[in-house]
Design brief:
With 171 residues, the protein is α/β, with parallel strands linked by helices. The protein has a single domain, classed as Flavodoxin domain (Rossmann fold), CATH 3.40.50.360. It has five helices and five strands. It has a five-stranded parallel beta sheet, with helices on both faces. α1 links the parallel β1 and β2. The structure holds flavin mononucleotide (FMN). The site of flavin mononucleotide has 16 residues, from α1.
């Protein structure tokens, strides 16, 4: 059975560059893994501990179930205003009480103009959530829009090599 990977895109934009990188990564993985792109982090309600009770809001329950059933998690995200996009951080906040990221293998791709601060912040969050990620499974793609074409071909050789290396380590 191929590995089951859940994918979160930190961008909710229709023509997201991160979406193109996700497509490229799925293609690079071939038949080594089966990827499910989570419909949208924006569908999750705003995190509120008062409603983080049993039963969880339906979208949250669906998200947690998909996380639990996945062998690993691929996160691709831009940086917004020097930080992690709110929708993505919100999704991660919903995993705190259930510890669904504990020991979950994670590949983290920050594809942005700069992205350093979002990457650093995500590493702190994912570490406190005890996700399993290493420098080998963490990729920063700067000037991301210039490095992937509309058909999801990564056109920048060093970025492509980094993604391949991280994907191999992750899988
Ligand atoms: C409101 C806004 C704020 C942004 N702030 C940053 C930023 O702080 N750092 C950065 O690297 N890129 C920033 N960007 C640029 C994004 O990285 C770039 O638009 C990226 O392509 C978005 O990812 P997407 O194409 O997957 O939606 C910002 C973009 C927007 C729209």
């Amino acid at each position: 059975m191929p590995l089951k990977i859940l994918v979160l895109n930190g961008s909710t934009r229709a023509k997201s560059t991160n979406g193109l990188f996700i497509e490229a990564i799925i293609r690079l993985a071939g038949d080594r893994a089966q990827f499910t792109v989570f419909s949208s982090v924006a569908e999750l309600p705003h995190f509120n501990p008062d409603v983080d009770i049993d039963p969880a809001p339906p979208e949250v329950a669906r998200f947690r179930k998909q996380l639990r059933e996945a062998d690993g998690l691929l996160i691709c995200t831009p940086e917004y205003a020097m930080g992690v996009p709110g929708s993505l951080k919100n999704a991660l906040d919903w995993t705190v009480s259930t510890a669904d990221l504990r020991l979950k293998p994670i590949m983290l791709v920050t594809a942005s103009l700069s992205g350093e601060k979002a990457q650093r912040s995500l590493l702190e969050t994912l570490t406190v959530l005890e996700g399993k990620l290493t420098p080998e499974t963490t990729v920063l793609v700067q000037f991301a829009r210039t490095k992937v074409d509309a058909e999801a071909n990564v056109t920048d050789a060093p970025a492509l090599a980094d993604l391949k290396r991280a994907l191999d380590a992750f899988l």
